Amino acid sequence: MAENSEMDEDCFEDAYDRIPVASKMDLQTSIEECSMALNLVLNNKFSEALDLLKPWSKDSMYHALGYSSILVMQAAMTFEHKDIQTAMATIKEALHTCHRFRKRNSMVESLSSLVSKQSSDRLKEEQMHAEICYAECLLQKATLTFVQDENMISFIKGGIKIRTSYQIYKDCQHVLNMSQGVGGDTDTFAQFEGGVKLGIGSFNLMLSLLPARILRLLEFIGFSGNREFGLSQLREGAASHSMRAILSVLTLLLYHTYVCLILGTGEGNLVEAEALLEPYMEKFPKVRIYKNIYIYVIYIYTYIYIYYILYIYYIIYIYI
After folding, report:
1. Within 13 Å and on the Cβ side, how many CA atoms surround 257?
2. Which UniProt keywords apply (predicted)?
3. Which residue in 63, 128, 155, 233 has a CA-CA distance of 20 to 30 Å to 19?
4. Which of 73-82, 177-186, 193-202 is the most confident on average?
């Protein structure tokens, strides 16, 4: 019985090695291939994941996002100058690729007004997904900006990128709210919803960790730092079938096992953390989740939090 189980597991892992390069690429196919690449990463097959994503990394937003994410992960874990330079070049290309699929002749700040003028079901799904992918790429570039050069200018540049990313997520949440009950049962819409919940949940959770006086000021100018809402969004994202569900899980794990301890915000919910992690440990028993993706998530959110603190204090110093 044990031998059969081991054979099934090997077949599961090796199956991804035989995936041919797709001859055409649409939104659904790109999401499926990106999910395959994520499974490869969770099975510690990074080179195979890169080989799967690279052929379409300049023509597909999800391939660009996935390919750059792996290289950013590598750079954040090694801190090697060569890796950082390679990741930075790749993330710039990914931003360019994602931008090509975004709504033309519209800035991020005008997305909400654009939606209010036309029904959300007329918005192209590609444009909705492009906003999410672009926002995620901005967060990765902000992290690399800090890693590459640790000075105040880098902090300010990174803070601006994070603020832009936050605004994109807010606009996408507006699109999501308008789209509820309007043909929102497709897999691509579920993937979009998972991305929105991950972003909105993460930002609300992180902002809620700021000092109360700073948080009140931020809420006055449009930011949101509701901890319970952030946790609920992440829990919904973790319970979904979106490929970003694992990132929602890891963010919750980060909060329960790292943030609560370091910042002293309260006791982490270890029972929930174990329950969230258990399905993935059963599905990917050989994954080095704490050494790979978990550390990467810690880097991302720690740097973003530092950005916010310095950027906010800078804005207060200049304008108040």
Report:
1. 18
2. Membrane, Repeat, TPR repeat, Transmembrane, Transmembrane helix
3. 128
4. 193-202
